[in-house]
Amino acid sequence: MSELSHGKYDAVVVGGGPAGATAAHALGSRGRDVLIIDKSSFPRKKLCGGLVTWKTTQLLEREFGWDHEALGPKDGFEYATSGYEVHFDGDTVKNGQSERPYYFADRRRYDAKLFEAAVDHETV
Q: CA torsion sign, 77 to 53 to 65 to 10?
C-alpha cells in the first residue's frame, strides 16, 4: 500500500524495517488487514544493523519461504562467513569459527525485499 487509506485495520505496524515488515507479512499472510506506517519510503539508506544471524535466516525461511543459501547480493546479502575476531585496544583477544554462518546485508536492498514481500499481501 503506497498511500494512506482510511479504513479499519486489525493491526497498525509502526516502522517498515525488518521487524515491522516481518510482523506485517506474518499478519497479512494470515488474512489480517494491516497498515504499515514509516517515516521513509523504500528502498532507503540505512547505516547500521547489517549482520543477519543464523536464527534470523531460519525465521526468513519459515516466514517468507526464502532459502538462506539461495539469497545473494540482489537480496541484500553481500557476504557470508563463520569466522570471527574480537579486538580490544588494538589487540585480537579472541578468534575462531562459529558452527553456523552469519551474513552481512546491505540494508537498503534487504529492507526493501522484506518490505515488498509484506506489501505483496492484498491485506497489507
A: negative
